[in-house]
Amino acid sequence: MFKLAAKFDPTGDQPQAIEKLTMGIEHSLKHQTLLGVTGSGKTFTIANVIRNIGKPTLVISHNKTLAAQLYQEFKEFFPKNSVHYFVSYYDYYQPEAYIPHTDTYIEKSAKINEEIDRLRHAATQALLTRDDIIIVSSVSCIYNLGSPEDYQKLSLRVFEGQKITAHELVQSLTRLQYVRDIELKRGAFRKTRDEIEIVSSSGDRIIKLKIGSNKIAKIFMADSINLDTVLYKEPRFEKIIETRIFPAKYWIATVDKTDLAITNIKAELQQHLKYLNKHGYITEAERLKSRTEEDLRSIKQVGYCPGIENYSRHFDFREAGDSPFTLIDFFKTKGEFLTIIDESHLTIPQIFGMHGGDYSRKITLVEHGFRLPSALDNRPLRFAEFDKNIGQRIYISATPKQYELKKSGKKGIAEQLVRPTGLIDPTIEVRPTKNQVPHLIGEIKKRVEQSQRVLITTLTKRMAEDLTDYLLEAGVKVNYIHSEIKTLERLEIIHDLRLGTYDVIVGVNLLREGLDLPEVSLVAILDADKEGFLRNATTLIQTMGRAARHINGHVIMYADKVTRSMTNAIRETDRRRKIQEEYNQKHNITPETISKEIKKYDLPSSKQKTKIARWYSYDHIEKGDLEKMPMDKRIEYLTKEMQRAVKELQFEKALVLREEIQRLKKQAP
After folding, report:
1. Which of 11, 113, 617, 637 is most exposed, with the fewest beta carbons within 10 Å of its own?
2. Is the pLDDT of residue 540 over 70?
3. Among the listed residues 60, 12, 62, the one whose alpha carbon sits nearest the alpha carbon of residue 36
């Protein structure tokens, strides 16, 4: 079912790890752990296991950046199969909250990334239509998503010869939350006298329905389309017999359930209003009544309201406290599936903590009349529910915790300490903090002269930003990464480090797991002796591993004392290094720096960079070729492109081009 495309065969510890994990799944082991050092090819090992087992696979990572990297790697390993990316679609998210002691209500505020939302819909739709599927997800996979049964049932099946009027089709599409528009965009449709064009919620296909004599005369579909080019490049349509149109949004109520759900919501409202009034919460009761009735009016009219997920228990007909439907329930429609928990030493604790944080915020909203008690069931899974639902799983970590090791037992642990390239763990140096920045700048310059890269970890965001400013003033090509940098921008910064746009990245804990950067030869850890989460033994081992993909990998810990965590991390690294050296000597292996092609992410870029990048691909002229043009020719070319953009109603592109033209004119002699 899965066709693995790789230019190399398993080597080092990979063959025995692949065999042990595969046999463990075949022998129904529920828990297994792949204990693999950084750079040992754990993803390739897992890809081989997926190929061997042939089951739909859910891969969970503890943050979006690493999920994106895994997504790219699995797409490369399985180009013929269905590989998808499923993470939170918010660029910015301020959840609804209430602070009683200041009587402050904070309304939900969020900015949805349309591209990531598109990828989420593509993932869930693929789960319902294909078996050869791998989805790489963040912990978004444990959050309420709505019933897969309803999502499938609500989808609109259309076929050639189907008796249905254009008006009925428009009503059905509106019910699925498709928006009528003159422009082709995701989740929208446009209608002419005898034709309806629909852009799928996944944004990658256009369905064209020809209507005649109150029936569907013909159906055409354009697949794998780019909505940015359809205005000036006609999509290639193929005639099909039938297809299915999935909802444009999650949590849409089926017609047969809406009336009963509304009745149940009204019943809960009456019961809770009685409770609030009885205990003297008059203001809270009035607030709850007004808010809920407004939502119900919207649901009755269009089958949807903002925040409809807070009523999902009623639409799913779940009892209070029952598990919500999540991406895992979409996987369960496939029968047996495999779960891979990447960097399990961090992902498992993250899953453990999700429900508690969500509950503490929502119970306050319920107590003060902002939400019905049933809103508490719009939540992430409790860990026990997650554990029960996922079946067989493999934990992956260079530093697994006792939970994974105990659950797996000796039979379920596969070690992968030897790297295919013969690379050994980095050398470690501890230096005093006095004059640490001048010393660090000197070390950076040594690496830059050899076209190598550097990672620096600090303890706080402010330190990361301040150090970046200082290094910039010193002439270093540097950028920083921390939690306030948007997901897709983080990917671009990491990609630019590999390209050489930057020589250094400064970060906090985002530089620990999974960053596959073979160009990095130096990792500098500031304040290494400050005991805590960011400087415990596990964290230090993970951080030092970022230099393990380069033959000259080296770690500098700036510290005025050697802590217990530092001692344990250094001891474990030295132990692994010894095993690796002995293996290389035994097999006559000469270590080599990992060679990895720098490929462009096919995930969406940040909006501003996307606009700028499109100037140069617009008419098959690369940026480098454009910059080689004489100034007058460059201005002339961009002026034509601007005029063409205006004709095609691409006004944002035209504005960006105009700004560039004005900039060039100022530079012109």
Report:
1. 617
2. yes
3. 12
Which residues, other chains included, contact 551 with Cβ-Cβ below 8 Å and sequence gap of 6+?
A: 423, 591, 592, 593
Per-position b or e across 427-437, b if 16+ CB within 10 A of its CB: ebebbeeeebe
Residue 152: predicted pLDDT: 85
Tokens linked to 558: 């700036």
Structure tokens, 484: 């306030």
Residue 380, CA atoms < 13 Å, CB-side half-sphere: 22
Q: Report the relative pairing of strands 133-137 and 31-36 from DSSP bridges.
A: unpaired
Q: Cα(281)–Cα(368) distance, rounded to whole angstroms?
A: 8
CA distance 529 to 620: 53
* DSSP sequence for 163-202: B--HHHHHHHHHHTT-EE-SS--TTEEEE-SSEEEEE-TT
Closest CA to 340 of 394, 387, 385, 391: 394
The C-alpha torsion from 8 through 9 and 11 to 15, rounded to 10°, is 150
Alpha helices in 501-563 (DSSP H): 537-544
Q: How far is Cα 340 from Cα 53, in angstroms, rounded to an integer? A: 13
* Alpha-carbon distances, residue 60 vs 87, 348, 496, 516 (angstroms): 10, 10, 25, 17
Q: Give the CA radius of gyration of the chain.
A: 28
Q: Return the residue matching tokens 């944004």.
A: 203
Measure CA 23 to chain center: 30
State pLDDT tens for residues 596-641: 666 655 555 444 333 333 333 334 345 566 677 788 888 888 887 7
Q: How many CA atoms lie within 13 A of 535 on its CB side?
A: 21
Helices (H) and strands (E) in the chain, counts: 22, 25
Whether 151 and 327 have beta carbons less than 8 Å apart is answered as no
CA distance 255 to 248: 16
Rounded distance between C-alpha atoms, residue 384 and residue 142, angstroms: 12
CA distance 268 to 310: 13
Q: Cα torsion at 200, 203, 204, 205 (round to 10°)?
A: 30
Higher local confidence (pLDDT), 668 or 325? 325
Structure tokens at 546: 């970022």
**Which residues, including other chains, have CB under 8 Å from residue 196's CB and lie 6 or more apart?**
166, 169, 170, 173, 189, 190, 208, 209, 211
d(CA 142, CA 60): 10
Alpha helices in 618-668 (DSSP H): 623-628, 631-647, 651-667
319 token code pair:
């009892």
Question: CA 143, CA 496: separation in Å to the nearest integer?
Answer: 32
Cα–Cα dist 10/242, whole Å:
43
The amino acid that residue 528 corresponds to is A
Q: What is the dihedral of CA 597, 598, 602, 603, to 10 degrees?
A: 130
CA dist 36 and 344 (Å) reads 12
Residue 521, CB half-sphere, CA atoms under 13 Å: how many?
Answer: 16
- Whether pLDDT at 297 is above 80: yes
Residue 168 corresponds to which tokens in the numbers above? 């009925």
What's the CA gap between 346 and 350, in Å, rounded? Answer: 6
If you search the block for the tokens 């989460």, which residue do you land on?
533
Q: 456 exposed, middle or buried (CB, 10 Å; 0-12, 13-18, 19+)?
A: buried
- The CA distances from residue 62 to 70, 349, 363, 664, in Å, are 12, 10, 26, 44
Task: Quote the tokens at residue 355.
Answer: 């429900």
Determine the pLDDT at residue 492: 81
**Does the structure show a pLDDT above 80 at 411?**
yes
Residue with tokens 């990992």: 594
